Amino acid sequence: MPTPERSALALAALLASAGAAHFIAPKQFDAIVPRALPGSPRAWTAASGIAELALAAGLACPSTRRTSARAAAVFFAAVFPANVKMAYDWRDRPLPEKALASARLPLQIPLILWARHAGRGGR
Question: How many whole angstroms separate alpha carbon 36 and alpha carbon 4?
Answer without folding.
Answer: 37
